[in-house]
Design brief:
Elements: E1 27-32, H1 47-55, E2 74-76, H2 87-103, E3 107-112, H3 118-128, E4 133-137, H4 157-163, E5 167-173, E6 185-188, H5 194-199, E7 204-210, H6 232-245, E8 247-254, H7 264-280
Parallel strand pairs: 1-2, 1-3, 3-8, 4-5, 4-7, 5-6, 7-8
Length: 281
């Protein structure tokens, strides 16, 4: 199986790793800089580049885990050049790339970009794994059936995933629209009962992390920030416990909308991606 290929920008690697070997890598970072420009801010397409740029200035040794997980092999794929034809076509492009990553026995970790792209990743995972849950960390339920003329809007992504018959656990939710049919298990912020959350999850879990699930005091750089979100250490505790008690089979971190001159949120997003890798490897 050849490594995934698609239109690319210049090489730009997560953590700034000079030595990259796709065949030996255990994790494939997939930057998908897509934005349909439907939020009041429209820079989510700049999120992957800001996250990767910040990661190049991070220490590789993880104090908590006592290891440098980059030695296990992390390969950064070229940036997706998303279709301009339709959101549905972008979802298809994402599915194709994530499918190839999974077939090559790598852990797919997609960085976005708008939350709508998560549908393509979940579709790819569903073709490889018949029974799994989706753990959604998010401020918004994203369960509208249609919004702004499309069923592939970021406000509809979890509805499309739910339509696939996949069990959804939603954590950090504090904004929804009237009439949305919520997921199978919903934990509204600030409710974060670790054992109850994990009990709702199947043995295999796909993690989709919308950065607006975090409180805007630590993550203001999102398209639609909502007050009252998760903080750093409780977030890490949740992800670590899920990784220890379940098997995370893929993940995405989306909706970083960089604010010029404010680098801290970019570094947080980069650190979060690296912590996820540390917990699953």
């Amino acid at each position: 199986m050849e490594k995934p290929s698609y239109p690319a920008l210049e090489p730009f690697n997560f953590l700034g790793l000079n030595e990259q070997n796709y065949e030996k890598a255990r994790v494939a970072i997939f930057p998908a800089p897509y934005s349909s420009t439907t939020c009041w801010k429209t820079g989510a397409n700049e999120g992957p580049r800001a996250l990767i740029e910040a990661s190049r200035h991070m220490e590789l040794y993880d104090i908590e885990e006592g290891k440098d997980v980059s030695k296990e092999g992390i390969f950064t794929l070229p940036f997706l050049a998303p279709s301009k034809n339709s959101p549905a076509e972008v979802v298809g492009e994402v599915k194709e790339v994530v499918s190839k990553i999974l077939l090559d026995k790598k852990f797919p970790l997609m960085i976005g970009g708008e939350h709508s792209i998560s549908l393509g990743a979940v579709q790819a995972v569903r073709e490889q794994f018949s029974d799994f849950s989706v753990l959604q960390i998010d401020a918004h339920s994203d369960l509208r059936d249609e919004f702004e003329g499309t069923k592939f809007h970021h406000a509809c992504v979890m509805k499309r995933i739910k339509d696939l018959g996949i069990s959804i656990t939603q954590v950090g939710i504090r904004s929804t629209s009237e009439g949305e049919e919520l997921g199978d298990s919903v934990f509204f912020a600030p409710d974060l009962p670790m054992d109850k959350i994990i009990a709702t999850l199947k043995e295999k879990v796909y993690l989709t992390f919308d950065l607006d699930g975090l409180d805007p005091s630590i993550m203001p750089s999102t398209g639609t920030p909502e007050p009252g979100g998760l903080l750093w250490y409780e977030t890490l505790k949740l992800i670590k416990e899920v990784a220890q008690k379940r098997k995370i089979i893929g993940a995405d971190v989306v909706e970083l909308d960089p604010i010029p001159g404010l680098a801290a949120p970019d570094f947080l997003a980069a650190k979060l991606v690296y912590k996820i890798i540390n917990y699953i490897i």
